[in-house]
Write a structure and sequence with these properties.
The chain is mostly beta strands. The chain contains no helices and 16 strands. The chain is globular and about 50 Å long.
Length: 208
Amino acid sequence: MKIVSTIGLMLICLAGCGDGGGGSADVNAPVLSETVPPGETISPGEPDGNQDNGSSESSPKTQPRVPPVLQGRETARDADGRIVYLPAKPDGLMVPPSRSCTRDEDQLRPPRPGLRARRLDERHLLVTINFKSIPGRCTPDYVRLTFDVHRDPLPPSSQMLPIGDTRTPIEVELPERVSDADIVRATSVMTRTGRSSETASVLVAGGA
């Protein structure tokens, strides 16, 4: 069993960081809305042609429309009072690995890792990563692990592990700010092409 500390190895995954190398926003990252005063909620708003042009001071400010990808997502407020759309919460404790590499826009993506995570104590998790097969044409170089506290609007903490370090269960020491992490995500990455796999997301077993 390999013991890894995230301190000094963390990468902050901000909103919009890639999940598949295709330039799309990461659906597993918090997404900031505009600043909304405490006690109010964001509303879908009106179509562009019907928005208030500011001619009436008594007219309420029209809130921006919620993009379809964010509709139904839970929200929380950050320290500045802004609405943050939280990533979708996984509903399982285990995700199996994909069968092999996948193809996206005529480019190969590495296989998605299988993933499980179990809490050992207040600061440590035992993370198990496995692959069904790793074909030579899409061999990943690293696995990106991400640790997230679902109801915390702050970005999660991440670290990159060489693929050789994932052959046995990994004991991870969590940074203090994510010591209550209840979600772990894993993505395999090919550094020579910049392509990454689909993301495996699980709940932490033994967590609150």
